[in-house]
Amino acid sequence: MNDRIFKSINRWSGYSRLVDFIMVTLSTRTRYVYLYVLILLLFQAKFNKRKTLIAGVTISVTYLLSMLMKRFFYRPRPFLKQAVHLLPPVPSGKDSSFPSKHTALAFAVSAFVFVYHRTWGLVLWLLSLLVGISRIWMGQHYPSDIVGSAILGNLTAFVVKITEKYWRPFLERTLRSYTHFSPSSRQIKD
After folding, report:
1. Domain boundaries of the chain, sorted by first residue
2. Amino acid 180: pLDDT
3. CA distance 168 to 37
4. Residues 6+ apart with CB under 8 A from 96
5. Quick one: pLDDT at residue 11?
6. Is 80 exposed, middle or buried (0-12, 13-18, 19+ CB in 10 A)?
7. Exposed/middle/buried for residue 157 (C-beta within 10 Å: 0-12, 13-18, 19+)
8. What is the 3-state secondary structure (H, E, C) of the chain?
C-alpha cells in the first residue's frame, strides 16, 4: 500500500516543469512562510514572551525528536530501493527516510499556531500537508514517513503546550541565570 501510494504520486514528477518547480519550492522554501507567520503572530499585542518560549520549545523538541528517530529507526529513502523520479536537492543516501524533518517541523509550527489562532493554524496545516506531498513528489519520502512525521509534529506541539506548567519554570530560571551571568549583562568597571 505504501509503495502503491508513493508510486501514484511520484510518477507525475518530471512531467511538468511548473508543477515540479512548485513542489520543490514547497519543499525547500515554505519554512520562510512559517517563520513569517510566527514572527507576525508573536509580535501581535496578544502574543508575549511566554508564547515565544512555547514556540521555541516546540520547534526544538520536534527537531531533536526527528534527529533521534532518524538515528534509531533507519529506513532507506525510496530512491535507494527503487527507480523513482528524483528531484533535487537530493539528500544523502545515509539519511533516514523516516521521519521527514521538513514535514514534522511544518506540522509542529502549524499545531502551535492553531492553539492560539485557529484560522492561521488551519492555513498552515493545509500548507504542511502540501509540504508532505511535495516530499513524496520529489522522491525523498514514503507516504508513511509523511503520516508519521505529521503525527510527530502535531503531538509534540500539543504535549509541549499541555506540559508547559512543568518545564516552563525550569527553563525561565535557566534563561534568567544565563542572562545574569553573560558577559553582556556585566557592567564594565575601570
Report:
1. 2-156
2. 59
3. 23
4. 69, 70, 71, 73, 74, 75, 76, 77
5. 93
6. exposed
7. buried
8. CHHHHHHHHHCCCCCCHHHHHHHHHHHHHCHHHHHHHHHHHHCCCCCCHHHHHHHHHHHHHHHHHHHHHHHHCCCCCHHHHCCCCCCCCCCCCCCCCCCCHHHHHHHHHHHHHHHHCHHHHHHHHHHHHHHHHHHHHCCCCCHHHHHHHHHHHHHHHHHHHHCHHHHHHHHHHHHHHHHHHCHHHCCCCC
Dihedral sign from CA coordinates of 6, 142, 56, 89: negative
Mean pLDDT by 10 residues, the chain (190 residues): 93 94 95 89 72 89 96 91 88 87 96 91 96 96 97 97 90 73 49
Residue 179 has a pLDDT of: 62
Give the sign of the dihedral formed by CA 69, CA 71, CA 75, CA 77.
positive
Give the pLDDT confidence score for residue 190 in this predicted structure. 39
Q: Residues near 64 by Cβ (< 8 Å), separated by ≥ 6?
A: none
Place of cell 518545564: 167
- Whole-prediction pTM: 0.87
